[in-house]
């Protein structure tokens, strides 16, 4: 029975996926990120839930030109690996890279999933104008789990700075953009997936 602010009254936390109708009339997933600790830890250590793998010459904390924190790696393959279990649907995996990076190999990759193992990957040359490297892949039925790999994940040479990784479901009509960032990137500083409220839900006429 006491007055309160709208922010406090409308605070929403979500523990799982939710759908919403976007302004274009399509049913889409509310913004989410299935990967935790999506930016650098501020040191060379791997964030919680990830492991450094590969034979490259190591890694250091770095900040990308767009202000996102991440890592700089050099030499051969040196990447972060996160084991994850996924449903048999379509997903999108992305990461921001410094456009000045010279690494010639793959910088994102999925492995171990039925229907996706060793098939989907992308390089620095595939980055868009914002420096984002994106792959979309579909996991077949019978998936037993696999992992995502971010960094210098294949044989190659050069230097790479990367950060701001993001994994989300892109079946249905895709995912609604994060209203806080204005694009699809959903930062997550926790160790578990993050699910944002449905902001801008439309009743389509």
Explain what this protein looks like in three dimensions.
The structure is a single chain. This protein is an all-beta fold and 205 residues long. 2% of the residues lie in helices and 36% in strands. The protein contains 1 helix and 14 strands, in the order αββββββββββββββ. The strands form 4 sheets. It has a 5-stranded antiparallel β-sheet with strand order 4-7-12-9-10, with no helix packed on it. Strands 5-6-13-8-11 form a 5-stranded antiparallel β-sheet, with no helix packed on it. Strands 1-2 form a two-stranded antiparallel sheet. The longest helix is centred in the N-terminal third of the chain and has 4 residues, at 6-9. The radius of gyration is 18 Å and the shape is globular.
Short synopsis of the structure:
The protein has 205 residues and is an all-beta fold. The protein is 2% helix and 36% strand.
Topology, pairings included?
Blueprint: H1 6-9, E1 19-21, E2 27-29, E3 32-33, E4 51-54, E5 59-63, E6 69-74, E7 78-84, E8 90-97, E9 106-111, E10 121-123, E11 132-138, E12 146-152, E13 159-169, E14 194-195
What labels would you give this structure?
single chain, globular, mainly beta, 5-stranded antiparallel β-sheet
Major sheet size, sense and barrel closure: 5 strands, antiparallel
**Beta-strand content:** 35-45%
Which structural class best describes the helix and strand composition?
mainly beta
Spatial strand order of the main sheet: 4-7-12-9-10
The count of β-strands is: 14
The total count of helices amounts to 1
Oligomer: single chain
Query: What's the pLDDT, averaged over the residues?
Result: 86
Query: How far is the N terminus from the C terminus?
Result: 36 Å
Rg measurement, Å: 18 Å
What general outline do the C-alpha atoms trace? globular
Low-confidence stretches: none
Helix content range of the residues, please? under 10%
Provide the succession of SSEs.
Answer: HEEEEEEEEEEEEEE
């Amino acid at each position: 029975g006491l007055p309160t602010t709208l922010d406090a009254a409308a605070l929403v936390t979500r523990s799982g996926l939710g759908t919403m109708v976007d302004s274009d009339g399509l049913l889409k997933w509310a913004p989410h990120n299935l990967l935790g600790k999506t930016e650098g830890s501020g040191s060379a250590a791997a964030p919680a839930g990830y492991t450094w793998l590969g034979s490259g010459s190591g890694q250091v904390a770095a900040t990308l030109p767009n202000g996102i924190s991440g890592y700089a790696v050099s030499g051969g393959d040196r990447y972060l690996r996160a084991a994850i279990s996924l449903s048999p649907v379509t997903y999108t995996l992305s990461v921001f890279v410094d456009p000045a990076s010279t690494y010639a190999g793959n910088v994102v990759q999925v492995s171990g999933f039925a229907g996706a193992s060793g098939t989907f990957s992308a390089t620095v040359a595939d980055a868009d104008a914002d420096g984002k490297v994106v792959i979309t892949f579909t996991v077949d039925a019978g998936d037993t789990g696999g992992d995502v790999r971010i960094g210098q994940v294949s044989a190659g040479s050069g230097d790479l700075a990367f950060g701001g990784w993001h994994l989300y479901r892109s079946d249905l009509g895709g995912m609604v953009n994060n209203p806080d960032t204005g694009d699809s990137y959903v930062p997550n500083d926790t160790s578990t997936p993050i699910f944002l409220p449905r902001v801008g839900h439309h009743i389509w006429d």
